[in-house]
Each structure stands twice: as C-alpha cells, then as structure tokens.
What we know:
Blueprint: E1 2-4, H1 9-13, H2 17-24, E2 25-26, E3 35-40, E4 45-50, E5 57-58, E6 74-80, E7 85-89, E8 92-96, E9 101-104, E10 111-115, E11 124-130, E12 138-140, E13 148-150, E14 159-165, E15 176-182, E16 188-189, E17 194-195, E18 199-206, E19 214-218, E20 225-229, E21 234-237, E22 244-247, E23 252-259, E24 268-269
Parallel strand pairs: 1-3
Antiparallel strand pairs: 2-21, 3-4, 4-11, 5-10, 6-9, 6-11, 7-8, 7-10, 9-12, 13-14, 14-15, 15-23, 16-22, 17-24, 18-21, 18-23, 19-20, 19-22
Amino acid sequence: MKTLLAHSPVAAAAMSAAQLRENFLLTDVFPAGGFSLAWWESDRTVAGGFSPVNGGLELPAPAGLRTAHFFERREGGFINLGGPGRIEVDGAVHALGHLDALYVGRGAKSVRMLSDSDATPARFWLLSYPAHREYPVRRIAIKDIKGDRLGARETANERTLFKLIHPGAFPTCQLVMGFTRLEPGCVWNTMPPHTHLRRSEVYLYFGLPPGAAVFHFMGPPQETRHLLVRDGEAVLSPPWSIHCGAGTTGYAFVWGMGGENQEFVDMDPVPLADIR
C-alpha cells in the first residue's frame, strides 16, 4: 500500500508538475488481474482499484493499517466501473453490475472480489475511511437511483449527479460517495468550483477513450494548478483545494468524501471572478 502525506497549499504551490502528480494523482489504479491501494494522510483515506480474474481477489489487511483485517476499524464503499461481478462479504454474495455500489461497514472480516467473466472483468473502485461504529452492508443498484441534473448546456457543464452512499439513504460514519456523468457536448465538471474545509475528496475519472484526458484544476482559488488525468486515474483533493475539470471529450467521475461533516451542501463556493 502506497503512503501519501498531506501537504499545505504553500508546499503544493512550489511543486513541479511531476511532484504534483506524485503527491496528488493515483495512476495504474486497475492493474490487470490485480489491485492497487494508497493510504492518504488527509482524513486517513484509503483508495484503490481491483480488477479480479482467475478466481478473484481477496481484500488484504496492509501492514500499514496495523489491523487483523481491513475493515476492523474502517468503513468503505465499492463502485463497479467494469463488467458484471460480485463481492463476497463474510460469506454473503452481493452481485454488482456496471455502476452498482456496495457499502461495507466496520467489522467485516472477509472480503473477496470476483468477475463474472474474465473477458470483461469487473473494476471495483474502493474508498475507505476510519469508522467509530458498525453499520450493515448495503447494496445500491444504479437502476434505483434518480440523478440530479446540474449545470446548463450553454455553459458546457450540464451533468447528472448520482448519490449512491449518503446520509439521506442510510447512515454511515464518514463516507459519502457517488458519481457524476456529463451530458454529450459538455466538458466542465464542478463548475463553478468550491472548497470544503471540513472534508477531503477523491475523484476517480472514467469513461474516457484512449488518447483523451481531463485537465483537473486544483489548488487554492487564487493559486490554481492543473493535473492531466487519463481514464481510470484518481485525484486526491485536499480540503483547501478547488476541484474542477474540463475534458477533451465526454467522461464521468466517481466522487467520494470523508471528514467531520457529511452534509452535501457544506461547501464554500468560489466565484469565477475570484479564480486566479
């Protein structure tokens, strides 16, 4: 499991493009037939991707967690970005189609991920935070979720936001998670931008064809930088940073947050006139 420390906005402002990528971008998230995990100091986040084939993958308990099993003191959410698959939690099987999600609460001991077909493997994206109590496992089917329309075609940011794991649906300790899909012809996400000092966020971009990219903007509102992000790569967004982007084609992204406040509207909008 890769370890990434938190950085102040002053430190980030002095980083080169390569250093920004090293500290705020997760690449090779879904290695073929394997997995990747990263621990980020902000809100003690764990993020990673799993692409199971040939009998599946067990969720390990990395040495850095100092626990007997991964969910001993954590909760987490999985979203399937690939072909049909299933996740076994302590022997119970949960089938997950494309864009279905699964919440796993504190105390789960055994988690195994499998694909229905090795030809079209599942791609399970995991986001996890520390948990203070136990909540039951929940499966969320995308067919049951009504998205919220945001933005407008005239400003190239018309999009649909799908809330999958959030307090309005069922209780969690910290985790809030879902995804946003842009409408055809639109390129801007989370525009106008905002910050939220009471929680950090992770963006996983998907649905980008080969050769396409998203220019993800980060940093304090008056000192913005950017990361060039490809399909299946994730951005670690600190509480002090804006997080918005423009793509060279259509795309979607999984968003997930952890911290001291789960209210979705708890954010500090940044007017475009203030962006530098």
